[in-house]
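Handout, section B. The chain below has 262 residues.
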Amino acid sequence: MRENESNSPLLVVEDVSLDYRQTDGARLPVLEHVSFQVADGEFLCLVGTSGHGKSTLLRLIAGLERPKSGRIWLAGEIVDRPRRSVGIVFQKPTLMGWRTVEANVALPLELNGCCDREEARRRARALIDLVGLDGFETAYPAQLSGGMAQRVALARALVHDPEILLLDEPFGALDALTREQMGRELLRIWQTRCKTVVMVTHSVPEAVFLADRVLVLGRRPACIVAEIPVNLPRPRTPEMLETPSFNVLTHRVREAIDRAGV
Protein backbone atom coordinates (compact mmCIF):
# COMPACT_ATOMS: atom_id res chain seq x y z
CA MET A 1 0.00 0.00 0.00
CA ARG A 2 1.37 3.39 -0.93
CA GLU A 3 1.21 6.46 1.29
CA ASN A 4 -1.87 8.64 0.93
CA GLU A 5 -0.59 12.20 0.89
CA SER A 6 -3.89 13.69 2.06
CA ASN A 7 -4.27 11.08 4.82
CA SER A 8 -7.94 10.79 3.86
CA PRO A 9 -9.35 7.45 2.64
CA LEU A 10 -10.22 7.03 -1.02
CA LEU A 11 -13.34 4.98 -0.21
CA VAL A 12 -15.66 5.39 2.78
CA VAL A 13 -18.58 3.03 3.40
CA GLU A 14 -20.63 4.44 6.26
CA ASP A 15 -23.43 2.55 8.05
CA VAL A 16 -24.76 0.98 4.85
CA SER A 17 -27.83 -1.25 4.98
CA LEU A 18 -29.80 -2.87 2.17
CA ASP A 19 -32.72 -5.22 1.78
CA TYR A 20 -34.70 -6.56 -1.18
CA ARG A 21 -38.43 -6.94 -1.61
CA GLN A 22 -39.33 -10.57 -2.38
CA THR A 23 -42.17 -11.76 -4.62
CA ASP A 24 -44.43 -12.30 -1.56
CA GLY A 25 -43.84 -8.71 -0.47
CA ALA A 26 -41.59 -9.61 2.47
CA ARG A 27 -38.25 -7.82 2.90
CA LEU A 28 -35.03 -9.82 2.68
CA PRO A 29 -32.26 -8.09 4.67
CA VAL A 30 -28.87 -8.39 2.97
CA LEU A 31 -26.50 -5.84 4.55
CA GLU A 32 -26.82 -4.18 7.93
CA HIS A 33 -24.77 -1.24 9.26
CA VAL A 34 -21.67 -1.98 7.17
CA SER A 35 -18.87 0.53 7.71
CA PHE A 36 -15.23 0.55 6.60
CA GLN A 37 -12.67 2.70 4.83
CA VAL A 38 -10.09 1.96 2.15
CA ALA A 39 -6.90 3.98 1.78
CA ASP A 40 -5.58 5.16 -1.57
CA GLY A 41 -3.47 2.35 -3.03
CA GLU A 42 -4.70 -0.28 -0.54
CA PHE A 43 -5.53 -3.86 -1.53
CA LEU A 44 -8.55 -4.98 0.52
CA CYS A 45 -10.16 -8.43 0.43
CA LEU A 46 -13.70 -9.30 1.57
CA VAL A 47 -14.31 -12.91 2.58
CA GLY A 48 -17.35 -14.93 3.58
CA THR A 49 -19.46 -17.65 1.98
CA SER A 50 -21.92 -17.21 -0.86
CA GLY A 51 -25.16 -15.37 -0.35
CA HIS A 52 -23.96 -13.08 2.43
CA GLY A 53 -23.87 -9.81 0.53
CA LYS A 54 -20.28 -9.46 -0.67
CA SER A 55 -21.16 -9.06 -4.34
CA THR A 56 -24.03 -6.76 -3.43
CA LEU A 57 -21.61 -4.59 -1.49
CA LEU A 58 -19.37 -4.28 -4.55
CA ARG A 59 -22.38 -3.27 -6.65
CA LEU A 60 -23.18 -0.54 -4.14
CA ILE A 61 -19.59 0.75 -4.27
CA ALA A 62 -19.79 0.71 -8.07
CA GLY A 63 -23.00 2.75 -8.01
CA LEU A 64 -24.98 -0.03 -9.70
CA GLU A 65 -27.36 -0.16 -6.71
CA ARG A 66 -28.35 2.30 -3.98
CA PRO A 67 -28.32 1.47 -0.25
CA LYS A 68 -31.50 1.59 1.78
CA SER A 69 -29.62 3.65 4.35
CA GLY A 70 -26.10 4.89 4.90
CA ARG A 71 -23.75 6.47 2.39
CA ILE A 72 -20.70 5.66 0.30
CA TRP A 73 -18.05 8.20 -0.69
CA LEU A 74 -15.40 7.76 -3.36
CA ALA A 75 -12.67 10.40 -3.55
CA GLY A 76 -14.82 12.68 -1.42
CA GLU A 77 -17.96 12.41 -3.58
CA ILE A 78 -21.17 10.54 -2.78
CA VAL A 79 -21.61 7.40 -4.89
CA ASP A 80 -25.12 7.58 -6.34
CA ARG A 81 -24.60 6.31 -9.91
CA PRO A 82 -22.04 4.35 -11.97
CA ARG A 83 -18.82 6.29 -12.47
CA ARG A 84 -15.92 6.14 -14.87
CA SER A 85 -13.60 6.24 -11.86
CA VAL A 86 -14.61 2.66 -10.99
CA GLY A 87 -13.42 -0.45 -12.84
CA ILE A 88 -15.11 -3.77 -12.12
CA VAL A 89 -14.34 -7.40 -13.02
CA PHE A 90 -16.89 -10.15 -12.40
CA GLN A 91 -16.37 -13.91 -12.01
CA LYS A 92 -17.32 -14.43 -15.65
CA PRO A 93 -15.37 -12.22 -18.06
CA THR A 94 -18.49 -11.32 -20.14
CA LEU A 95 -16.50 -10.59 -23.28
CA MET A 96 -18.23 -9.87 -26.59
CA GLY A 97 -17.62 -12.91 -28.75
CA TRP A 98 -17.72 -11.01 -32.05
CA ARG A 99 -15.04 -8.52 -30.99
CA THR A 100 -11.31 -9.17 -30.92
CA VAL A 101 -9.28 -8.94 -27.72
CA GLU A 102 -8.21 -5.42 -28.68
CA ALA A 103 -11.77 -4.35 -29.47
CA ASN A 104 -13.07 -5.80 -26.19
CA VAL A 105 -10.45 -3.91 -24.19
CA ALA A 106 -11.09 -0.66 -26.05
CA LEU A 107 -14.87 -0.87 -25.58
CA PRO A 108 -15.11 1.43 -22.50
CA LEU A 109 -13.17 4.11 -24.37
CA GLU A 110 -15.53 3.83 -27.34
CA LEU A 111 -18.61 4.04 -25.12
CA ASN A 112 -17.27 7.06 -23.22
CA GLY A 113 -16.06 8.81 -26.36
CA CYS A 114 -13.11 10.10 -24.39
CA CYS A 115 -10.50 9.66 -27.13
CA ASP A 116 -10.17 9.03 -30.85
CA ARG A 117 -9.84 5.59 -32.39
CA GLU A 118 -6.06 5.64 -32.64
CA GLU A 119 -5.64 6.67 -28.99
CA ALA A 120 -8.13 3.99 -27.91
CA ARG A 121 -6.13 1.43 -29.89
CA ARG A 122 -2.85 2.58 -28.31
CA ARG A 123 -4.26 2.43 -24.77
CA ALA A 124 -5.88 -0.95 -25.37
CA ARG A 125 -2.62 -2.43 -26.69
CA ALA A 126 -0.70 -1.06 -23.69
CA LEU A 127 -3.09 -2.82 -21.31
CA ILE A 128 -3.02 -6.03 -23.35
CA ASP A 129 0.75 -6.01 -23.00
CA LEU A 130 0.47 -5.27 -19.25
CA VAL A 131 -1.72 -8.34 -18.63
CA GLY A 132 0.63 -10.56 -20.61
CA LEU A 133 -1.40 -11.07 -23.77
CA ASP A 134 0.89 -9.41 -26.29
CA GLY A 135 0.34 -11.15 -29.62
CA PHE A 136 -3.32 -11.97 -28.94
CA GLU A 137 -4.75 -8.58 -29.97
CA THR A 138 -6.62 -10.04 -32.95
CA ALA A 139 -7.80 -13.23 -31.21
CA TYR A 140 -11.47 -13.77 -30.38
CA PRO A 141 -12.81 -14.85 -26.96
CA ALA A 142 -13.59 -18.38 -28.19
CA GLN A 143 -9.88 -18.83 -28.88
CA LEU A 144 -8.85 -17.96 -25.31
CA SER A 145 -8.47 -20.07 -22.17
CA GLY A 146 -10.39 -19.07 -19.04
CA GLY A 147 -7.34 -17.39 -17.54
CA MET A 148 -6.65 -15.48 -20.74
CA ALA A 149 -10.25 -14.29 -20.91
CA GLN A 150 -10.02 -12.95 -17.36
CA ARG A 151 -6.83 -11.11 -18.30
CA VAL A 152 -8.79 -9.43 -21.08
CA ALA A 153 -11.55 -8.50 -18.63
CA LEU A 154 -8.94 -7.06 -16.26
CA ALA A 155 -7.36 -5.03 -19.07
CA ARG A 156 -10.80 -3.73 -20.08
CA ALA A 157 -11.51 -2.65 -16.49
CA LEU A 158 -8.21 -0.74 -16.34
CA VAL A 159 -8.18 0.85 -19.80
CA HIS A 160 -9.99 4.02 -18.70
CA ASP A 161 -7.60 4.42 -15.73
CA PRO A 162 -10.12 4.09 -12.86
CA GLU A 163 -9.37 5.27 -9.34
CA ILE A 164 -10.54 2.00 -7.82
CA LEU A 165 -10.78 -1.58 -9.11
CA LEU A 166 -13.54 -3.86 -7.83
CA LEU A 167 -13.02 -7.60 -8.30
CA ASP A 168 -15.91 -10.00 -7.69
CA GLU A 169 -14.41 -13.47 -7.28
CA PRO A 170 -12.54 -12.98 -10.57
CA PHE A 171 -10.63 -16.28 -10.44
CA GLY A 172 -13.36 -18.48 -8.96
CA ALA A 173 -14.05 -20.35 -12.19
CA LEU A 174 -10.40 -21.15 -12.89
CA ASP A 175 -8.47 -24.31 -12.00
CA ALA A 176 -6.20 -24.16 -8.96
CA LEU A 177 -2.91 -23.69 -10.84
CA THR A 178 -4.29 -20.98 -13.13
CA ARG A 179 -5.91 -19.26 -10.17
CA GLU A 180 -2.59 -19.15 -8.32
CA GLN A 181 -0.83 -17.78 -11.38
CA MET A 182 -3.53 -15.14 -11.88
CA GLY A 183 -3.15 -14.06 -8.26
CA ARG A 184 0.54 -13.40 -8.80
CA GLU A 185 -0.22 -11.58 -12.05
CA LEU A 186 -2.82 -9.44 -10.30
CA LEU A 187 -0.24 -8.36 -7.71
CA ARG A 188 2.20 -7.46 -10.48
CA ILE A 189 -0.43 -5.36 -12.25
CA TRP A 190 -1.54 -3.74 -8.98
CA GLN A 191 2.01 -2.72 -8.17
CA THR A 192 2.59 -1.47 -11.73
CA ARG A 193 -0.60 0.60 -11.99
CA CYS A 194 -0.84 1.70 -8.32
CA LYS A 195 -4.58 1.09 -8.10
CA THR A 196 -6.82 0.78 -5.06
CA VAL A 197 -8.41 -2.68 -5.08
CA VAL A 198 -11.43 -4.15 -3.28
CA MET A 199 -11.72 -7.86 -4.02
CA VAL A 200 -14.30 -10.47 -3.04
CA THR A 201 -12.98 -14.01 -2.69
CA HIS A 202 -14.05 -17.28 -1.08
CA SER A 203 -10.44 -18.39 -0.74
CA VAL A 204 -8.82 -17.52 2.59
CA PRO A 205 -5.24 -18.23 1.38
CA GLU A 206 -5.85 -16.09 -1.70
CA ALA A 207 -7.12 -13.20 0.44
CA VAL A 208 -4.14 -13.36 2.79
CA PHE A 209 -1.65 -13.66 -0.07
CA LEU A 210 -3.02 -10.65 -1.96
CA ALA A 211 -4.34 -8.19 0.59
CA ASP A 212 -3.09 -5.50 2.93
CA ARG A 213 -6.19 -6.16 5.03
CA VAL A 214 -8.97 -8.77 5.12
CA LEU A 215 -12.55 -8.01 6.19
CA VAL A 216 -14.84 -10.89 7.19
CA LEU A 217 -18.58 -10.54 6.56
CA GLY A 218 -20.94 -12.39 8.87
CA ARG A 219 -24.26 -14.06 8.20
CA ARG A 220 -27.08 -12.24 6.41
CA PRO A 221 -27.93 -9.50 7.09
CA ALA A 222 -24.18 -9.15 6.79
CA CYS A 223 -21.95 -6.80 8.72
CA ILE A 224 -18.20 -6.66 9.24
CA VAL A 225 -17.38 -9.14 12.01
CA ALA A 226 -13.57 -9.04 11.84
CA GLU A 227 -10.73 -6.99 10.38
CA ILE A 228 -7.36 -8.72 9.98
CA PRO A 229 -4.34 -6.66 8.91
CA VAL A 230 -1.94 -8.65 6.72
CA ASN A 231 1.57 -7.65 7.77
CA LEU A 232 3.42 -9.84 5.29
CA PRO A 233 6.20 -8.03 3.41
CA ARG A 234 5.89 -7.07 -0.23
CA PRO A 235 6.54 -8.13 -2.88
CA ARG A 236 4.68 -11.34 -2.06
CA THR A 237 6.22 -14.58 -3.29
CA PRO A 238 4.88 -18.15 -3.56
CA GLU A 239 7.35 -19.19 -0.85
CA MET A 240 5.36 -17.12 1.66
CA LEU A 241 2.50 -19.60 1.39
CA GLU A 242 4.59 -22.08 3.40
CA THR A 243 5.70 -19.71 6.17
CA PRO A 244 4.46 -19.76 9.79
CA SER A 245 3.39 -16.10 9.47
CA PHE A 246 1.15 -16.92 6.53
CA ASN A 247 -0.37 -19.89 8.35
CA VAL A 248 -1.07 -17.78 11.45
CA LEU A 249 -2.92 -15.19 9.37
CA THR A 250 -5.02 -17.74 7.48
CA HIS A 251 -5.90 -19.35 10.81
CA ARG A 252 -7.04 -15.99 12.20
CA VAL A 253 -9.29 -15.37 9.20
CA ARG A 254 -10.79 -18.87 9.38
CA GLU A 255 -11.38 -18.46 13.13
CA ALA A 256 -13.26 -15.22 12.47
CA ILE A 257 -15.39 -16.95 9.84
CA ASP A 258 -16.13 -19.83 12.21
CA ARG A 259 -17.07 -17.48 15.05
CA ALA A 260 -19.49 -15.68 12.74
CA GLY A 261 -21.13 -18.98 11.87
CA VAL A 262 -20.70 -18.47 8.16
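Note. The mean pLDDT is 89. Compare this with the example in section A.
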